[in-house]
Write a structure and sequence with these properties.
Layout: H1 3-37, E1 46-50, H2 76-80, E2 87-89, E3 94-98, E4 105-106, E5 111-119, E6 124-133, E7 139-146, E8 151-158, E9 161-168, E10 175-176, E11 182-190, E12 194-201, E13 203-204, E14 207-208, E15 210-213, E16 217-219, E17 225-230
């Protein structure tokens, strides 16, 4: 019996087993890395932004906003008052939702447009935040359009809550908001029958409804809701 050959074979087997262990270790580590790096983000947290200008065109489907991407957006209070003292003051301001839906009734598949108005009681406004609740299982959000050419708006939805942040462009001067000037239009599509509410809320967790003045005042407006029936 050739003991030398047997020793060589045993040595080769040891090397083969060692390489096999190393291969599986690298395979497992690579798999874990790819799994973690490819994990999808929370689909409920989204942002979209639209500004209407004189030259902006709406296509045949009525959709003229960028595709939504996952992100977290700042509030008007954060952006407009950086480096300044934020003061919350009592006010006679208001924010209201309105719709021209006949009798407040619609059918599944119909679209509803909600118009957002605000009255700043003569104060110059540079930004605003809005919190709204609605049944996200009964309505799909389609788009949000700013009705003021010097404002960018950002929409953010999570569950049954929906927020809007409006920021005035740096090139434009602050100005009061009046009920005659619509801030934005929000479009939803009905997907379920029943009676539902679109309600403006004073707050939800860290999000708040407010108006930000050029003097870094945070105005808390009175609010309303819209009730619709889907058949």
């Amino acid at each position: 019996m050739n003991y030398k050959n047997m020793e060589n074979d045993q040595e080769k087997n040891k090397i083969f087993k060692y390489l096999l262990v190393v291969f599986f270790a690298v395979f497992i580590v690579t798999g874990i890395f790819m799994l973690l790096s490819g994990r999808p983000k929370n689909p409920n947290e989204k942002i979209s932004t639209v500004r209407v200008t004189d030259t902006q065109k709406i296509n045949n489907n009525g959709v003229d906003f960028p595709e939504e991407t996952t992100a977290i957006i700042p509030t008007a209070a954060t952006v407009s008052t950086v480096g300044a003292t934020i003061t919350t003051v009592p006010s006679s301001t208001s924010m209201t939702l309105e719709t021209d839906l006949p009798g407040g009734k619609m059918k599944v598949g119909d679209m509803i447009e909600l118009s957002l108005f605000a009255d700043s009681n003569g104060k110059n406004i540079v930004g605003y935040d809005v919190v709204m609740s609605y049944d996200s299982l009964a309505f799909d959000f389609l788009r949000g359009l700013s009705s003021l050419s010097d404002y960018h708006i950002y929409t953010y939805k999570k569950g049954h809550f929906f927020t809007i942040t409006g920021l005035k462009t740096l090139q434009s001067s602050p100005s009061p908001m009046t009920k005659a000037n619509k801030l934005a239009t929000l479009t939803f599509e009905a997907t379920k029958t029943g009676q539902f509410e679109f309600s403006l809320l004073s707050s939800n967790d860290k999000d708040k409804t407010d108006l930000i003045t050029d003097k870094t005042e945070v105005l808390i407006p009175t609010l309303n809701k819209v009730v619709v029936e889907v058949k």
